[in-house]
Structure prediction request, 1800 residues.
Amino acid sequence: MTRYVYDFTEGSREMADLLGGKGANLAEMVRMGLPVPPGFTVTTEACRVYLTTGVPPQDLGEQVADHLKTLERAAGRNLGQVDDPLLISVRSGAPFSMPGMMETILDIGLNDYSVLGLAKGPGRERFAWDSYRRLVQMFAGIVMGVDTALFEDALTALKKQHRASVDTDLDTCDLIRLVETYKDIVLEATGEEFPQEPAEQLERAILAVFDSWNTERARLYRRREHIPDDLGTAVTIQIMVFGNLGADSGSGVAFTRDPATGARGVYGDYLPNAQGEDVVAGIRNAVPLQELQRLDPHSFARLRDHMDKLEEHYRDLCDIEFTIERGHLWMLQTRVGKRTAQAAFSIASQLTFEGILSPDQALARIDGEALAHLMFPRFDTRADNEEIAHGIPASPGAAVGAVVFDSAEAVRRAGEGEKVVLVRQETTPDDLPGMVAAQAVLTSRGGKTSHAAVVARGMGKVCVCGADDITVNPRERLFTARDVTVPEGTVISVDGSTGVVHLGAAPLIDSEIMRYFDGGGQPPTEQVPQPVRDVHQMMQRADAVRRLEVRANADTPADAARARRFGAQGIGLCRTEHMFLGDRRELVEAMILARTDTDRDRALQALLPLQREDFAGILQAMDGLPVTIRLLDPPLHEFLPDRIELAVRVARDGALGKAPEPRDAELLAAVNRMHEENPMLGLRGVRLGLVVPGLVAMQVRAIAEAVAQRTAAGGDPRAEIMVPLVDAVEELHLVRHEVNRVLAEVSEETGVHIQCPVGTMIELPRAALTAGKIAEDAEFFSFGTNDLTQTTWGFSRDDVEAAFFSAYLDKGIFQVSPFETIDRDGVGRLVNIAVAEGRAARPGLTIGVCGEHGGDPASVHFFHHAGLDYVSCSPFRIPIARLEAGRAALIEYTPGSDSM
Amino acid sequence: MTRYVYDFTEGSREMADLLGGKGANLAEMVRMGLPVPPGFTVTTEACRVYLTTGVPPQDLGEQVADHLKTLERAAGRNLGQVDDPLLISVRSGAPFSMPGMMETILDIGLNDYSVLGLAKGPGRERFAWDSYRRLVQMFAGIVMGVDTALFEDALTALKKQHRASVDTDLDTCDLIRLVETYKDIVLEATGEEFPQEPAEQLERAILAVFDSWNTERARLYRRREHIPDDLGTAVTIQIMVFGNLGADSGSGVAFTRDPATGARGVYGDYLPNAQGEDVVAGIRNAVPLQELQRLDPHSFARLRDHMDKLEEHYRDLCDIEFTIERGHLWMLQTRVGKRTAQAAFSIASQLTFEGILSPDQALARIDGEALAHLMFPRFDTRADNEEIAHGIPASPGAAVGAVVFDSAEAVRRAGEGEKVVLVRQETTPDDLPGMVAAQAVLTSRGGKTSHAAVVARGMGKVCVCGADDITVNPRERLFTARDVTVPEGTVISVDGSTGVVHLGAAPLIDSEIMRYFDGGGQPPTEQVPQPVRDVHQMMQRADAVRRLEVRANADTPADAARARRFGAQGIGLCRTEHMFLGDRRELVEAMILARTDTDRDRALQALLPLQREDFAGILQAMDGLPVTIRLLDPPLHEFLPDRIELAVRVARDGALGKAPEPRDAELLAAVNRMHEENPMLGLRGVRLGLVVPGLVAMQVRAIAEAVAQRTAAGGDPRAEIMVPLVDAVEELHLVRHEVNRVLAEVSEETGVHIQCPVGTMIELPRAALTAGKIAEDAEFFSFGTNDLTQTTWGFSRDDVEAAFFSAYLDKGIFQVSPFETIDRDGVGRLVNIAVAEGRAARPGLTIGVCGEHGGDPASVHFFHHAGLDYVSCSPFRIPIARLEAGRAALIEYTPGSDSM
Prediction:
């Protein structure tokens, strides 16, 4: 017989998957001997059975009844008994925190008789009837599906009749009548009486909590938070205690440390003579927790004692809810508290300092996303620009710009050098050019998976979405926010990390953490602020324990130097196509348009010294460290003008009877000739090298000459040559042959013995699937996970991210964009295959990754466990990758569905 | 010690990999007791060692010397001995036939002394000196690298001096002097004397044959014929026999059966008093082999006897070379003879009839490509159009059209309804539009892997390339062929199956085999020609033994009906996009341009009845058989006008000061909005279904209503619904939900219980890699190997086939285009993974393939062994797929590198 119910005395915090976070932590507190009102938990498994089959598990009723009996025995009173009835709460509790998303029903056990028992005692009458009234409303709404507006209407009508302004103006008689009215409403709406039988109340409440797992808002929340849909919720049944029984009662929340800094102390709020719900709802003003010491020194001392125990036990900041019922302290909930990015570092650092955590444990407590937040520039909080709106912080960072209301205006103003913020009700793919042109995007609708949010995050643009304080009026070219009207052109400040929008240009300040990294991560002195010292401590530890090396994707000497300051251990991807742009475009055009080998060679010869100097500069900046140079990758027509523009220009000239510019005509012919329907799937990568004569030789010669030059200058250049887009070992074999020929030639000419490892990108499924063969000719592998994701899924980031990713996230097809975090089941499986078979063919093969996933925390963990040697990412992501590589080495890994 | 040399008595025909085809078959004849001049074979392994390391294996010299001694003992005379010298031939012999591609050196053992011994005997003087002269020329050319034109010049000079017109006019004295001249040439060209030592001659000849494996022409030939580059050649060393020693000598070739029909009999040619080389060179006219009966009845009888033995032994048509030396018959070579497509069927049929082969063995002897040849229409050979050129038959079929010399003219004339043949020196990607417009492509340069050949085969266009009889003069818009001048507009006939080009419109006749299939493959009567009966017999057998079903890719009732006549067992792919074209384009445009749900719904409602009738027609044609209907797949902008054309039109109007047509402006805006950089990787397939509201519902409703309609009419409609481009089970799950909803709705409305299996294409790597999960929601899989090849390799057929496939074939990166024959290592591995994991998750899952590979013989074998249930291909490929499916069930499979 499967066990679906656990008494609090039988669980522990490790059982959160089965008992939910709430149930597991309550059980843990019971184990610790803390005063918790007795209760038991129905498992998530019971919920899953119910949600899958539509009926509760066969034995559930019986198991619940058994546990209820135990509870009644312990309490010495029964559910629903007429004198001094036992009341219970029925609460949801999922394995991951989903605050407010699911249902809770309090005061189960009240009925027409037990309400009288509850009312016994001085001043309890009103309390009892009000509790019953609330139960009827809550139960009818949640369990029986009655529209709760009906109850609100009845209440309002009664208040009107009594000219009462607040609920508390109603007396017991009113409440008794109101309960009657409520019960009538239930009967009318459902054809069913409000159930008087407490056991029935309990049973139906449990199923209603199960059902609340699948409400629209709960589903949406899970999608946003990447919580799987199939976990289900546990249900906690617990004896009710009351903080609203007089001056010797009350409820509060407490933190074992300052959630902002991690400093020990007494932090929290206390509300005398109130239930926990009232504290959260903020109906009355709570007092600082320290006041409790004055109000009830005994309970305060006990609470402090419990808090110390919890801290010691959880070894982390704990967030606590408690109630004092007539001088008796009850612990109602605890959990490891949420915190800001900076607090995460402070707390971890503080706990290490106190000896509570080892440095490795501290490292596991923080994460790369928190570090990324600390690196963004932020608005100076000392400035006092007016806050005009607050939305969902969808893509972090701080941006200042003039308000514009459409894409065309954004593009126009940005073209004139103005910084703009695109403000829309919501964005569509039509807004893309404007989003590209803008500093930030602000929308009044949509959540974290809206089009604006997804696209902005993909572009690294600041975005605040769903700011429902504002009303966008593009027709009149203005928006209103609270009581401010903001016309087009007004400068605003958008904080993508907090969701706050300010009027005017709020002053930006560089992050001190960014300055620390850009200074080369030197050990901070005492004068340096604590947050920097905290980060330094974590980085030191991460570097000490990580196995993965971290390299940078960098194409210029300046980027290379910065990456080195940020801690890069080499360059994992030096793209050469950027070196083909700018003032070299003319030479590149000449190379592409060449009609004869001589013309082409002349253009290549002119490019050669320029490329050589590029490489020499980068090799100098990374002296002594590997620099992996990728041969030219993109299709050549990317270096030519836009086809549509040319066609339109030539057509206009034609319509006006003018002969087109000869250059235009020639370019158009070339562009038409080279046009590809799907350039991503066209003549690029190694294919170019194999069909454009002289291209590989020129690039390799530039690398070899740069190496010779740096060696002659006493340097230690370590160039590696990387061949992109290889599908088959034969391609690599041919290119390698050419590479070795040129290296030998330049060695001969310069007298410098030049040796560069030659390796390949693994960025096509076929390369991964035949990695064993490819390894025979490759001295290293580097996963190009952008292209690999593109081809494995068969969609291109550019084309589909804007078109349907937000829909896919909303529908739950993605938990997260596979371009952001590596898709373990598909792309990850190919990575695992290639690593295993590549190393089998060539033991000790160096393997890295140079796609954008190299700087994504979850992906870094995957790459660590896949056995890669390094990750390579953009310079600004290097600290994050270092930190996560360290964490990956410490944190146990659940391989999930990774397989081969 | 590795053994590198095998005596003929030690080998067998199974050893062709080691001994080459020639060596293995000679050994086999020795085993059979046939008279073969003694000899031995140096293995391909020795060749491989030599080619890899640059030096022959250490023991090779010794092993050759040992075997030579054995040979001398057997012959009773020594190599190079002065009286009656032993002479030997040194011949190449690769595991696969490479006729004329590698080198042969005859008469090894002759030198200044042994030539005198060979000259002894009546009338042998001239023969001996001529042999010596030939040895010097052959050896110097092949072994010593002397330009053989020097020898030809000397010979011509001597002939001029003697006013001799042919070689035979020269007398012994002339030849003796010529040998001296030749030896001088060798000395002058190489600084080295012609080697007199026979052992040195032999050793160097062997290495020269090894080297000839890697000549340019041999490499090219291997690439064309898909022979791996790393096999190496064996070398056969054999005692020379001479057919040119008088009237009682001669040489001939013989076939054990008529190579055209397979009828038993005596077929071949005999040339009295000649060496084998003379027969092949056609210097003198040979006589029919029957004549030998009169000339030398004894040898003829022995030959007949040997031929019978070979037939019985090889159980196939054998092709034989023999020499009679002074009345003694020697067998010099045998192999299974090549044959025409028709002969292949005839011979297999005849051998079955004679009881030599079982029906299954006969089936293994023929193949689908041969059948494809028999199905093409061909020119009526009775017509006598002038043959003006002969090139390489690069893409089969027969086409008639007016000559054009450039792409623009081809497009222009084709646009006016004229049939054209594009004639170019060679084609480039610029010629693509012309190739599309033309009936056939004819080039004067390039081989089977030239751009023209590769692209034409890809398009299924007739192509003859490398027709070096013709000179193309596009400037004067004419070509000359032999002595005919052909101006633009002249009608010519191009036979892509034979390479022949005729002047004028040669009459085309339908293939009788095609008529047979189109008649439903009825058992032929006695009146029907034998070839049809042969094919019928093979098809019967193939159908009886095959496990794979064969379905058709068909989108119209007419195609469905034809496919059924051709033997299709259902439709594996019914594309619905073709139903969105033609006069429905306006509705489709309206659907795409709809600004409101109402507008879109109106357009969809208008499309609904049209789609329903499409489906009803197809279901009727395939009544009782499965019809797999794929939901809309291509990106929507494919249904809108071309972006460039619109932009140009609007720009022209603008330049002329006209407002653009409102429709143009609207369309341009829509096309720009929907423009994708890489439409193959964009919003298409299931993604469309998930983001365009109502599209899936409309298509499913059309299917369901068609099923209901056919059911009501007493039919047996078996529609299956196929979801394209699925990446993740979640996509399929959502669509399935929608499908089931609509099916239930229509069932309810019509009272017909409609059940359609819902399955998915597996056409993206991720789908294959997560097939186990996808199978949970898919009732069938169908591999879309076109897209799967595209994404696995990361190149699109349209974009790259023309751009670099011919270069890739030439460089040996491909043996064959992966779009033509499935790439086992990459794409095939994904297929294997998906089959194994799909069936593990859902035992009995139906799995097919509907990419073009479904009609490719090699791929059909792969799919059979991968365990698929069916292949689906275009109607005309159905007989080929049926035949190959049968053969696949019989022929043992070498899985190669297929793996999981």
Observations:
- The CA atoms of residues 469 and 482 of chain B lie 6 Å apart.
